């Protein structure tokens, strides 16, 4: 019994297999071309590692769980059992314009005297902005803000991201994003400076200078157009950054993943960063995590009209009540977390059904880029759902401790 509560026995090397797999996949992004190929290669390497240590891991619960998990993942990703595998030797490939490779190489070099081949897993942060607007910070603080005009989301030595927000409804302090400017700063040997700018009805698949990549032929920085005029992704492999920009209805959404060490590379003149520190208290609409619903739906026709191209047409605003808004949001957002509640708030504030799609896409982008699955779900402060989720983890930990204690007593 006691062995089931241990991570691994000294002879069983399943922990090393798992650590290598995490290192090989932690830098991969599901939305990037080639993800499935690289993920399958890593899975085959993981499987081969478990086979080599199978004899010494007989009866180990962690080992058998890993074997079953590998099989399930290979089925889900349609991975063949035979094929190329990822190398777990950190010295095999060193790409100076690939952040993950560069970090791994530096870590291995600095620990060369220990003869250790352990893989380092870079720490990543996530930030997202969508809707009226709702901000998810690097610290997973969820805020709804006014922030009208131009505001910096990120401003460090490697990357700058600025958004411009405009009012959406007469008589409301809520705004939404109609312009995004992203500056990738020069990095010697990999790329010179590139600027990307998106505005409502103009979501280009190129930087402002007309290029679509930088650092050719190594493609240290490139743009991928997922849906013309609606969905663009920017990949900066040299700094490990991925940015997703979308247009839903009249407004834009943004999602960013960045290595923690780079996000912290700024000086005192760059301390105003919404992703880093959140919105100033005077700009907050929510009340410490509680998002109050509007007292009444907006009168139809009060939505502020933004300039648009002649070819663009938008659905007319609707009058949503609370139950109608909840029902519409439930069509796409099954879990009633903060994204669901933000959707309800936006529909009641604007009457614009496009905000439902914005909340749904923001949630999916978060799931694609956020590095910690256990932190995906955030629930409004004071809700029954939040209380049940916050209480569940201590209960699970207590149950596991009791099981281990009982196992020890029986031996």
TrEMBL record:
<dbReference type="GO" id="GO:0005886">
    <property type="term" value="C:plasma membrane"/>
</dbReference>
<dbReference type="InterPro" id="IPR009496">
    <property type="entry name" value="RGM_C"/>
</dbReference>
<dbReference type="InterPro" id="IPR040287">
    <property type="entry name" value="RGM"/>
</dbReference>
<keyword id="KW-1003">Cell membrane</keyword>
<dbReference type="GO" id="GO:0030509">
    <property type="term" value="P:BMP signaling pathway"/>
</dbReference>
<keyword id="KW-1015">Disulfide bond</keyword>
<feature type="domain" description="Repulsive guidance molecule C-terminal">
    <location>
        <begin position="124"/>
        <end position="371"/>
    </location>
</feature>
<keyword id="KW-0325">Glycoprotein</keyword>
<keyword id="KW-0449">Lipoprotein</keyword>
<dbReference type="Pfam" id="PF06535">
    <property type="entry name" value="RGM_N"/>
</dbReference>
<comment type="similarity">
    <text>Belongs to the repulsive guidance molecule (RGM) family.</text>
</comment>
<feature type="domain" description="Repulsive guidance molecule N-terminal">
    <location>
        <begin position="12"/>
        <end position="81"/>
    </location>
</feature>
<dbReference type="Pfam" id="PF06534">
    <property type="entry name" value="RGM_C"/>
</dbReference>
<keyword id="KW-0472">Membrane</keyword>
<protein>
    <submittedName>
        <fullName>Repulsive guidance molecule BMP co-receptor b</fullName>
    </submittedName>
</protein>
<keyword id="KW-0068">Autocatalytic cleavage</keyword>
<dbReference type="GO" id="GO:0098552">
    <property type="term" value="C:side of membrane"/>
</dbReference>
<dbReference type="GO" id="GO:0080090">
    <property type="term" value="P:regulation of primary metabolic process"/>
</dbReference>
<dbReference type="GO" id="GO:0010604">
    <property type="term" value="P:positive regulation of macromolecule metabolic process"/>
</dbReference>
<keyword id="KW-0336">GPI-anchor</keyword>
<keyword id="KW-0732">Signal</keyword>
<dbReference type="InterPro" id="IPR010536">
    <property type="entry name" value="RGM_N"/>
</dbReference>
<dbReference type="GO" id="GO:0015026">
    <property type="term" value="F:coreceptor activity"/>
</dbReference>
